[in-house]
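Throughout this chapter, every protein is written as a compact record of paired, labelled lines. An example of such a record is reproduced below:
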Amino acid sequence: MKPALLLLALAATAFAAEPPPLKVMLVTGGCCHDYKTQKDLLKAGLEERIHATVDCIHVDDGSTRPPLPIHGNPDYAAGYDLVIHDQCAADIKDPEVVKGVLKPHLDGLPAVALHCAMHSYRSGDFRTKVDTLGGDGSLWFEFLGLQSSGHGRQEPIEIAFTDHQHPATRGLKDWTTIGEELYNNVRVFDGARPLATGTQGKAKAVVVWTNHYGPKKTPVFCTTLGHNNATVKDPRYLDLVAKGVLWSAGKLDDKGRPLPGYGRPKK
């Protein structure tokens, strides 16, 4: 083969071997957080760490009922490989709206849920432990795999990884956050797999876990960490979320390494 043709063949092979980036939707907006800044921190941090394109779906609304365009549109995630839920929609309680948000994940689309997503879409009595599954009151909690009803004041959280064999936590080290909110655990569902606990004084709770949701066992990665900007831009936090994205999307091997083409993008 002539040298020019050989170079073209090698270039074509290299191009064919490079997978397309993961197409990720990041949903932000709502009460109590600087989502306007945090969406950019997450987008930049993830795109720096993994082969992904992050599209931000954001509303600059500080209420507990943010008018996110995903509400009332069960096809909102068409064309995406994964959705990151980072919204704070505590008072959006209509079960039909919640079912619409859940529809892509019920159909098998992987998800990551961050911080106040755990306190969103509370369609039932969120303070009472869910005992019966399948009803309107357990919709969002069954998706997450954990029920939380609140948090205490902001103080440092000592994070201890308790499952070092899971691909999403392999290689991650314990650390202590700045002043953050430790979300309580009302119920950890049977299908959830706790990965890390947080300790804040005498209080202790699961702060990182995975779940498999619905009949298709959709992978869902969750962490309650991430209230303040300083935490969201912390490289340790971004590493955690990046691994969670890759795990949910099925792009980590058993040793926690990105599959070929999905690691840190080439500059």
The two ends are 31 Å apart (CA to CA). Residues 22-248 form a domain with the Rossmann fold fold (CATH 3.40.50.880). Confidence is low (pLDDT under 50) at residues 3-15. The helical segments are 3-17, 35-49, 95-106, 139-144, 229-232, 235-248.
